[in-house]
Amino acid sequence: MTVADAPSPLPASPAGPDIAALRARLLEWYDRQARVLPWRVGPHGRALGQRPDPYHVWLSEIMLQQTTVAAVGPYFARFLEAFPTLEALAQAPEEAVLGRWAGLGYYARARNLHACARAVLALGGFPQTVEALQALPGIGPYTAAAIAAIAFDQPVTPADGNVERVLARLWRIEAALPAAKPAFRAAAARFDGGARPGDFIQALMDLGATICTPRAPACALCPWIEPCGARAAGDAETFPRKTPKAARPVRHGLAFVAEDGQRLLLGRRPPKGLLGGMPEVPGTPWRTEGPWSLDEALPHAPVEGAGWRVRGTVQHVFTHFELVLVVAHARVRLPRGSFSCPVDDLDAGGLPSVMLKAARAGLSAGVAGKPVGERRRT
Ligand code: SF4
Q: Is residue 29 lining ligand 1, measured as CB closer than 6 Å?
């Protein structure tokens, strides 16, 4: 899409210095201030001819979807420990990949990551163009452009949330997110085609992450302070404009934490759908009608005749709804050969975050309520 095609208000000619001057100022700043990131070859390395490993760039971009740089760092390191190369990832069993992904959420991404590694291996390496990258599993238009620019210096300028914020402020773009995405892509495309595209897009990302922050941007340190429209108007924090969000619906469930003092009983989610194929703390379906009482939930308990007690409630926010889980606990005799993990090393179970929360709440000290559902001795 070109600027002329943009459906939302975007200044026809940018205020302040021309695009080449904006690029030059930002690259000068990046040469001094670039963040050191484990998947990045910084400007000095690039100047010496070093190039980033496309496997690292791709992996980081997939992990960074919906997650911050600070949160991704340790996961990235652990992932590379287990799968140091694309070949190692492609040849690993899916469960091992999901296990290393546990905690990052959005598990469809981990499945696509695995499928993508296999597809890239079959191709003999990563393709370099946006179009060819976008044809791979789990790679959308933004990620394809980010990989193309960062790993292969293709002259494209993808706009993530940080970049959108900077551009919205620079040019005081009035269009409101999320409908304004095309306007932001058009604004970013103004920068396509200059020198050092990989460094430039990373500079723009760094500027948004470290200086042009959502709250209290540090304009005094910004290389674009002079041309910035929102800074001049004194309303930077009001950009990007946003359409108010509808409240998330709430679903309710009850999770049964069953353990024998050593091991926690686990189940596995159905292969399709939310958290598909992941380990879980067994429980009821999730419904919108309201909370489950323990009596009502007992037919879904994984062990009959246990003395279940409610130990609390945990909440978890998914993209499209909020989940409230009542957590019940019982000490049981685990069925022989049952799927389980050690109670003192829950990470070994590869549980997704919501299930880790439920397991911890169930295993924590402090028992509330009378035991329910215990089989009486006669
Ligand atoms: S001057 Fe301030 S608001 Fe404008 S781009 Fe820089 S940090 Fe953001």
A: no
How far apart CA 84 and CA 55 sit, in angstroms, is 9
Active site residue ranges: 61
Mutate to test the pocket of ligand 1, among 22, 212, 235, 237 (most ligand atoms within 8 A of CB): 212
Supply the angle between the helices 141-152 and 54-64 in degrees, to the nearest 10.
Answer: 150
Distance CA 42, CA 178 (A): 32
Helix (H, G, I), strand (E, B) or coil at 288: coil
- Residue 349, amino acid: G
Output the CA torsion sign for 295, 301, 303, 304.
positive
Strands 267-268 and 279-280: antiparallel
Does 1.20.272.10 match the CATH number of domain 250-363?
no
Which of 164, 169, 171 for mutating ligand 1's site (highest number of atoms within 8 Å of CB)? 169
Q: Is residue 166 lining ligand 1, measured as CB closer than 6 Å?
A: yes
Which tens digits make up the pLDDT trace of 144-194? 999 999 999 999 999 999 999 999 999 999 999 989 999 999 999 999 998
Residue with CA nearest ligand 1 atom 8: 212
Long-range pairs of 359-362 with CB within 8 A, sequence gap ≥ 24: 359/257, 359/264, 359/281, 361/257, 361/311, 361/312, 361/313, 361/314, 361/327, 362/255, 362/256, 362/257, 362/259, 362/281, 362/311, 362/327, 362/328, 362/329
Task: Supply the residue whose CA is at minimum distance from atom 2 of ligand 1.
Answer: 219
Query: What is the Cα–Cα distance from 229 to 212, expressed in whole angstroms?
Result: 13
Start-to-end CA distance of the chain, whole Å, equals 76
- 98-145 pLDDT tens trace: 989 988 877 888 999 999 999 999 999 999 999 999 999 999 999 999
The pTM for the full model equals 0.72
The CATH code for residues 3-238 is 1.10.340.30
Could you state, in order of their start, the residue ranges of all structural domains in the chain? 3-238, 250-363
